[in-house]
Amino acid sequence: MKQFCVAAGILMLSISVKGQLLLRQADSIRIESQIPELSYVILTADHILTTNTLGFHRSDVQNTTTKAKSTDYFHLGSNTKAITGFIAAYLVVQKKISWNTRFFDLFPELKKDANAAYLDITLADCLSHRARIKPYTSGTELVKLPKFTGTVSERRSQFVAYLVKDEPVQKTNAAYSYSNAGYSVAAAMLEKVSGRTWEKLVDDILSKKLHLNYKFGWPNKTNTIQPWGHWIENGVLTPLPGTTAYNLNLIEPAGDLSMPIDDYAKFIQLNLSGLNGKDNLLKSETYKYLHYGQNDYSIGWLNVNSKGKQISEHAGSAGTFYCYTLINTDKNIAYIIIANCATENAQKGIFKLLNKMIQSKAADY
Question: Which of 47, 123, 166, 330 has most Cβ atoms within 10 angstroms of its Cβ?
Fold first, then answer.
């Protein structure tokens, strides 16, 4: 027993030393890369190995009020796609819909005026970027749209009706054609079969079933004491007020959720656990389909899927935050880094930190 206690003490000391070294490296990278606030996690399916949130909510106000907290919300950007895919999977398990359900089987009234290129698109096509729907990855595309009216869900429905009449992207040799708007089409399908808006479905799954905290939109949209996103204005890193007219409602299912790092990490743990053979809210086989069901990009996840090398990843940014997640199924480990700016310098810093996290031999924590 005494030998066991000594060994356990040495292990805990090793974990503390490694964690403190990574903390110093992370803060140095944060400052060097001009990232106001940075949060990171290394986790396995069962444990949080190390996590920290560093810096300040705003670049221009750095005091005790704006100091980083572990409960701070960060905008996930396109990492929201994995959550919409998760909700779709839950409805598939509930037999409300299938991956092969065709859009026009649910919306026959839109078929008459639709572009023939979309007649056979399915739920899986929309979620894996194989429906050839235009990307809507820049604000300029959204600005050119007709004015839609009503609730957020009603405006999104009008957007979807507009999309299926529009021209598709040209066919290429690429496995998929990335589209935020494709997730709006998928969300319309989920709303139709469930009788719930996408927003209510998010609440049903994230809040009621998984007990996770989240917000729609920017973290500081309803609370100015949350992290502010940043971008470059006149050559200066500038915090973005939550009231800025930068509306992502039409493509919300593709990229407009915010979560605290601890809650987002729990969601990633569910995925990693499922990928390693354990059922939870979804079956293990469902997780494998979400991450690796199709090559290159499956449902909300980019992937490398070969013998002895199963890796899924995703980056998300609407221009003012940056979220990156890497899941290594074979090694039962995942890495998350989120920052409240997405400049080129910040992104370089994020991936520099990722390398430090990987090199830290986190599996030995």
Answer: 123
Helices (H), 68-122: 80-93, 103-106
CATH number of the domain where residue 216 is located:
3.40.710.10
- Under DSSP, the state recorded for 235 is T
Residues 230 and 105 placed together within one structural domain of the fold: no
Per DSSP, the three-state class of 255 is helix
H/E element holding 75?
A: strand 73-75
pLDDT digits (tens, 9 = 90+) for 167-208: 999 999 999 999 999 999 999 999 999 999 999 999 999 999
Q: Are strands 229-233 and 236-240 parallel, antiparallel or unpaired?
A: antiparallel
Phi, psi of 151 (to 5 degrees): -70, 170
- Tens digits of residue pLDDT in 153-163: 999 999 999 99
Position 364 pLDDT exceeds 80: no
303, two tokens: 């992937």
Please name the residue that has the structure tokens 């493509």: 251
DSSP calls for 177-216: ---HHHHHHHHHHHHHHHSS-HHHHHIIIIIIIT----EE
Q: How many domains does the chain have?
A: 2
DSSP state of 315: E
Alpha carbon 263 to its chain centroid, in Å, reads 12
Burial of 283 (0-12, 13-18, 19+ CB in 10 A): middle
With contact defined as beta carbons under 8 Å apart, do 312 and 241 qualify?
no
Domain of 193? 82-200
Query: Which among 178, 200, 222 is the end of a domain?
Result: 200
Residue 44 corresponds to which tokens in the numbers above?
């396995």
Q: What is the pTM of this model?
A: 0.94
Task: Report whether 179 contacts 135 (CB < 8 A).
Answer: yes
Is the alpha carbon torsion for 110, 248, 313, 176 positive or negative?
A: positive
